[in-house]
Design brief:
306 residues; six-stranded mixed beta sheet; elongated; alpha/beta; 17 strands; five-stranded mixed beta sheet
Length: 306
């Protein structure tokens, strides 16, 4: 017997966005809810004429339902595994699977992979999960199991790093923890360059994977240039600048821990380099610095790690 879900009934004329496959349902479009519904529950959405439209996770707030299916099917373990498998297949087509030059990439990009509220980053043989909805947080064990089945012995650990998002957004007690395996090797390769990743204590899931192409572009522009990498974090841009032939690179960040990792990333890639890391408040540094830099990377984070 298939599972019955609570029904979200829309106001007249509010179904068009879902018919166009928009993954969010806003609270103002809802007429009523039939059945008991709690934070993170799966609900089905219907038009005022009782036509099925979509299925998603329910949450109180402006975005009331984040949609993961526009087909009326039972949502079970096989459904979630299929979603992860589809994302894996897309990354394989893009050349990220079994790539000797790059083994760090985003496997799940929330709505971009039809799994809103979910981020999964792959760091060599470790998957880092970060959930942004209670619905996804509640199925993290199933997600871990599916990842293990999809990757096989290529995956040595699955780390859940959802504590901060869960405590801030949903006010529930959560702890970051390994759902499978343990820390193991923290070194990854991106475009042939080596990086140490701190997914347990670093920003986001440990590395700003979305900046990969920008880092590569900097390397192409850096030859014989003086470069300032402000808010350097773990020195990703600095390593690319050095690899591109920069004659001087300064990494500046208020976090001593980040600067230690940046120094390690430089040493792991170059036997000798013209690089210096400075644990310094970037805004103060910018006020006092001499105008000596040809290129400046300036990408402030939402908050600095300490």
């Amino acid at each position: 017997m298939s599972q019955q879900y609570s029904k979200v009934i829309l106001k007249a004329g509010k179904e068009r966005s879902l018919q166009n496959f928009h993954p969010w349902l806003f609270s103002g479009a809802i007429n009523k809810i039939e059945g008991e519904v709690n934070e993170g529950d799966i609900v089905e959405i219907y038009s005022t004429a009782n036509s099925y439209l979509a299925t998603g996770h329910y949450h109180k707030g402006s975005i009331t339902v984040r949609i993961f299916s526009f087909k009326k099917i039972e949502i079970n373990y096989d459904f979630w595994k299929t979603g992860l498998q589809n994302a894996y297949n897309r990354r394989k087509l893009l050349g990220f699977i079994d790539n000797n030059e790059t083994n760090v990439y985003r496997l799940i990009n929330a709505e971009g992979d039809d799994l809103p509220g979910l981020i999964i980053d792959i760091y060599n043989q470790t998957a880092v999960i970060q959930t942004h909805t209670l619905g996804m947080y509640n199925i993290r064990e199933d997600l871990s199991k599916a990842l293990i089945e999809i990757y096989g012995d290529k995956l040595k650990a699955v780390f859940d790093k959802s504590a901060e998002t869960m405590s801030k957004q949903w006010e529930i007690h959560a702890e970051n923890s390994y759902l499978f395996g343990d820390k193991g090797d923290t070194m990854v390769i991106e475009n042939g360059l080596k990086f140490k990743i701190d997914w347990e204590g670093g920003q986001k899931t440990g590395f700003f994977i979305d900046q990969r192409d920008n880092r590569k572009l900097l390397g192409e522009l850096a030859e014989d240039k003086t470069v300032l990498n402000a808010f350097a974090y773990s020195g990703g841009f600095s390593v690319y600048a050095l690899d591109g032939g920069a004659k001087l690179v300064h990494s500046v960040d208020s976090s001593k821990k980040a600067m230690e990792i940046a120094d390690l990333n430089v040493v792991n890639n170059f036997t000798d380099s013209n690089h210096e890391s400075l644990s310094y408040d970037v805004f103060d540094f910018l006020k006092k610095m001499d105008p000596i830099y040809d290129l400046i990377i300036l990408d402030p984070p939402a908050q600095n790690i300490k």
